[in-house]
Every structure is written in C-alpha cells, then in structure tokens.
C-alpha cells in the first residue's frame, strides 16, 4: 500500500476510512480514487488494492440487472448489493446510492430511505443526485453522511435531454452555486459529472469539501469510474464514454477463459484425473 493511500486511511490496518479522512486529504492536496462495486469479490479486491471509497451505485441498474437506464432499479434491489460490499471490505468507506423515486417526495421519504440503507445494508454514507440542499441538510441532520451529485445526473436524463455536458456558458455560475449550497447544507463530498474542466477546477478551489470527478477533468480532489468501464468488461451499448480509461480488457480475458473451458469439455480434456475423486 502506498504512503499516500496509507495516510488517507488515517490509522492502523483494519480501521475504516471516515469522511473526516477525506476532508483531511483535501486539506493536504492528496488525491484519491473511488470505484463502483456491487459484489463481494470486486469489493474485496478493490479494498485490498487500496481504493478508499466504494460506491454501490444505482448504475447497478445497467451493470448488474441489465436495465437500459438507471431509472428502474429499486431500493430493495440495491440493499443486498450494498450489504455484500460492506461485508466484504475492511477499510473502504462504502456509499449507497439512493435510486430514482426513493427521495424525491421530500425529507420524510429521503430520511426513511437513507435509514434503510444505513440499517439494513450497513453502509457508511449515502449519495443522492441533484442540488437538493434541503434534503441534504435533513439527512445529515439525522446523523447520516451525505455525498452530493451535480452536473449531469443520470436519473434526470429525460429532463436534461440525454447524456450532455452540464455547466457550459451561463450554466457554469449555476453549477458553482449548487456546489456551495451542497457543502453548506452538510454534504461531505460532491460528485461532479460531465462538467467542463475549468468549472470543476473552480468548484474544487472554492468549496471546502472534496470534489469527485467523472468526466470533469484532472483538477478535482478525487476521480470515480464504474468498475466495468475501468476494467474493460462492458461490451456493446455504444462507444466507450470519452472520460473512461480502460486499465484492463476483462471482456477478452473472460471470453478466452470460457472458450477454453468449453473446448476442453467438448474434447474430454476436462475434468482430468486430478479433478476426479
């Protein structure tokens, strides 16, 4: 584990990353990475690799359940995934993503859903989309850490008009104001998705909480990617987004493994004597 990751963990082996560690990292100018995770195996691997924050995103909709968008996924579908990630990790701070329809009715619904994520899935924080300072304040006031998410918000893609960069031109001022509102309401971090790099740089310099970029340039305090994008597992569904860098080609590796297995079964090579009781 690198010195920078060790310092972010802020304590001896086995101690969880806390939101205060992320704030301290921003003060030190220390960048960090966040990945999505939806199961015990990737969670354990990422935890041991030193990824300090794992997001069980509503992106499970199109990365686990096969939905076309994030909109159909439900709280009941996400809770077991969050619980699996929490149970498989020892150090990472695990954030549960509130899905569409689970908080828009107001503070009562938002707190109720957040409590379910904390009690039933045992995550350490929740994330919700949009500049919603009243909801952030209410949830944080209930003792639940809140990660905000502004810029492009996938749950609002129909209202936005598709996957489009947010914060250009006159919208930049609005986005900066939204980031300040989220911080003032009590969010411990804010995701900036598909935001011009200069706008993300300004927000990062102005707000006291960590900024987490995805398609927001190099100047945010942290970066997040969907793990299947990062590892080259996703196939089909159009071109890879511009902001994604693939660090492996797992789709090719798994295809080769499956084909080799099938070939050995057809040829009577597997199972061999060493695999037989």
Automatic annotation (TrEMBL):
Mg(2+) binds at residues 58, 97, 129. InterPro entries: Pantoate_hydroxy_MeTrfase, Pyrv/PenolPyrv_kinase-like_dom, Pyrv_kinase-like_dom_sf. It is found in: Cytoplasm. It holds the Pfam family Pantoate_transf. Keywords: Cytoplasm, Magnesium, Metal-binding, Pantothenate biosynthesis, Transferase. GO terms for cellular component: cytoplasm. SUPFAM superfamilies: Phosphoenolpyruvate/pyruvate domain. Pathway: Cofactor biosynthesis; (R)-pantothenate biosynthesis; (R)-pantoate from 3-methyl-2-oxobutanoate: step 1/2. The active site is at 193 (proton acceptor). Its EC number is 2.1.2.11. CDD domains: KPHMT-like. Its main location: cytoplasm. It catalyses: (6R)-5,10-methylene-5,6,7,8-tetrahydrofolate + 3-methyl-2-oxobutanoate + H2O = 2-dehydropantoate + (6S)-5,6,7,8-tetrahydrofolate. GO terms for molecular function: 3-methyl-2-oxobutanoate hydroxymethyltransferase activity; magnesium ion binding. GO terms for biological process: pantothenate biosynthetic process. Homodecamer; pentamer of dimers. Catalyzes the reversible reaction in which hydroxymethyl group from 5,10-methylenetetrahydrofolate is transferred onto alpha-ketoisovalerate to form ketopantoate. This is 3-methyl-2-oxobutanoate hydroxymethyltransferase. It comes from Rhizocola hellebori.
